[in-house]
Design brief:
It is a single chain. By secondary structure, this protein is mainly β. The chain has a single domain, classed as Nucleic acid-binding proteins (OB fold (Dihydrolipoamide Acetyltransferase, E2P), Beta Barrel), CATH 2.40.50.140. The strands form two sheets. The protein has a five-stranded mixed beta barrel. It has a two-stranded antiparallel sheet with strand order 7-8.
Amino acid sequence: MTGVKVKDIVPAAQNNINTEFILLEKGKTTTEGQNKTCLSLVADETAAVHFQLWGEECQAFEAGDIIRLSKGIFSYNRNSLVLRAGKRGKVEKVGEFTMAFVETPNMSEIRWIPDPTNSNKYIQQDILSTHSRIFPPKY
């Protein structure tokens, strides 16, 4: 499957991101009402990003899984940018362990602002952190 690389993902309102990545780390599952969510760190060979798992996805995927995202969305969730499947998107496991990846830059740790020349797009303003502050590097 050819899709967008993680480093090329930008915030948008449309559900149209098709990509593949490896799940590096999962955070704790939290429950609000009937909604179960789990924030995770995923990456490909170009960059990393925070990925929000919803409902049954929280138990369906483990670290080392290679995941294909179809019709995903990169948007704000509680003032934090996360990649997620959304209502129309789909995630599926397509392999395990054999994928090159980098942990920096983390696309969720960049401050994005509306593009002054096109109000439908966002551009990078500055980097908050080179790595995930939620999932700090182990070394």
